[in-house]
Amino acid sequence: MSHVDWKVDELEIFLTAEQIQQRVAELGAQISRDYEGQDLLLVAVLKGSVVFLADLMRHITIPHSVDFMATSSYGAATESTGVVRILKDLDIPITGRNVLIVEDIVDTGHTLDYLRRMLMEREPASLRVVCLLDKRERREVDVPIDYVGFEIPNAFVVGYGLDYAELYRNLPYVAIPKEGFFDQE
Ligand code: IMP
Ligand code: MG
Asked: Cβ distance 161 to 51 under 8 Å?
């Protein structure tokens, strides 16, 4: 069995664990204030959002529940049409509930736009979005985001849930691969 090529020294830290924790705590506090006395259901999109969700929910001080969806893009189709394949749907109905979608990153916006439309058809009482990272320059569809952790420039990032080839999700920081990272050995 070959070992994994773990080029963690070829990553440049962009957001430190401390910066992320600080901001996630602020988002949790704000969400707790905004939904005070109301029902709240967090809907996280697998797999990238799990790290953010796990931290965020521990900073939400009001009662709430969580559910998960898994999606996958239809290859290049996502770029043009935003068609997203649902690999795992929610376990519970959301009709009449206050739904907050938890996303790791919004890039072109196609994935989130598709999800919002799909969930809106189920007639939730409200539907909002919290994302940790917003690559606003890359946006192709104007999708509303209610809570943003950080606006980031147009660069590929890994860590804190985000992967490259399914790796690096466990890093507690967000990093940008240095020149040479993607080169073959
Ligand atoms: P969108 O549909 O273009 O907004 O793409 C959103 C999805 O693309 C995210 O949920 C991520 O899975 C993936 N993605 C976008 N940018 C990055 C990145 O910089 N690193 C890792 N994954 C990314
Ligand atoms: Mg994602």
From this structure: yes
To test the pocket of ligand 1, the residue of 52, 71, 101, 107 to mutate (highest count of ligand atoms within 8 Å of its CB) is 107
Threshold 0.90, pTM exceeds: yes
> Which residues contact residue 177 at a Cβ distance below 8 angstroms, ignoring those fewer than 6 apart?
7, 10, 11, 12, 156, 158, 164
Tokens in use for 70?
């898994």
Q: Which two tokens stand for residue 2?
A: 């070959």
104 assigned to active site: no
- Residue 47: asked if its preceding bond is cis (omega within 30°), the reply is yes
Q: What is the pLDDT of residue 36?
A: 98
CB of 69 shorter than 6 A to ligand 1: no
Helix (H, G, I), strand (E, B) or coil at 124: coil
**For 6-37, what is each residue's pLDDT tens digit?**
899 999 999 999 999 999 999 999 999 999 99
